[in-house]
Amino acid sequence: MVRSLWTGATGMIAQQTSLDNIANNLANVNTMGYKSQSIEFKSLLYQTMQTRTTSANGDAKPSSAQVGLGTRVSSINTSFRQGSLLASELDTSFALSGKGFFGVRGGDGNTYYTRNGNFQWTTYTNGSNMLADSDGNPVLDTQNRPIVLGSQYQTSLIQVSKEGEVMYPDANNNLQSTGYKIGRWQFSNPNGLYREGDSLYSQTAASGQPINEETATNIQKTQVIQGYLEGSNVQVADEMVNMITTQRAYEFNSKVITTSDTMLEEANNLRR
């Protein structure tokens, strides 16, 4: 019965973590570029009460007797399924269609990756304009350079092709390349990326090195769609069902603890 108390407690702790994860998914249902997460569980150690042996008559027993000692969270996986494309009135809104990520330069000098294309042109040195995310981090081109255009460029006239080419109309109103191309990177194992918050990810040994789509071959290229943003891929109906399931599992484990406590109380009363 003491074992059952501990088992019920591990179940409640695991289901509480599951509920925390569901709450985070629902809280970010309107976060651009957010990718939903799901929890995987695993069983804990098993206690062997009877090994596979023979009976007193020499007959072989078909199986042993083992009792599980509860559960715990084994991993929290991220679904990188494509989110819905939402129209935006801003020319600096960009959505990605494919497996790639934008690259931004953080304040610490490191490169981070995001699916949130809510960018804007900010004033840079000598009156020039730099493409940055909502936190002011520079957006990187295919050569890992910040995208900086001179003061002679009127930012409202800048167009970006599906290949990420940053273009500006000439005197004849024909679009010409500015020499910049918005960078897109892929990872062999995106689930290995480390979540930094603010829709940013950083590479890890598990994710592998970033694959530059501009120079890589034999990969499907990601398209840049101007005037759109990628919404989160959270399915509210699924999350609500998961929440109900988690709540029921939590109640069941709570019932295990109260039942075990009642049985222990009855056992103690036998001495009276």
Oligomer: single chain
Distance between the termini: 20 Å
What's the helical proportion of residues? 10-25%
Q: How many strands in all?
A: 20
How many distinct helices? 2
Radius of gyration, in Å, reads 27 Å
Unreliable segments of 5+ consecutive residues: none
Largest sheet: 4 strands, antiparallel
Order of helices and strands: HEEEEEEEEEEEEEEEEEEEEH
Strand content: 25-35%
Question: Explain this structure to me?
Answer:
The longest helix has 34 residues, at 236-269. Helix content is 22%, strand content 30%. The protein contains 2 helices and 20 strands. The strands form 8 sheets. It has a 4-stranded antiparallel β-sheet, with no helix packed on it. The chain has a 3-stranded antiparallel β-sheet with strand order 9-10-11, with no helix packed on it. The chain is elongated. The model has no long low-confidence stretch (mean pLDDT 91). Strand 9 and strand 10 (129-132) form a beta hairpin. It has 272 residues and is an alpha+beta fold. The protein folds into 2 domains: 2-79 and 234-269, no CATH class; 85-230, no CATH class.
List the helices and strands and how they pair.
Elements: H1 2-27, E1 37-43, E2 46-50, E3 65-68, E4 71-78, E5 85-87, E6 94-97, E7 102-105, E8 111-114, E9 120-123, E10 129-132, E11 148-149, E12 159-160, E13 165-169, E14 175-181, E15 185-186, E16 194-197, E17 200-202, E18 211-212, E19 223-226, E20 228-230, H2 236-269
Helix pairs in contact: 1-2
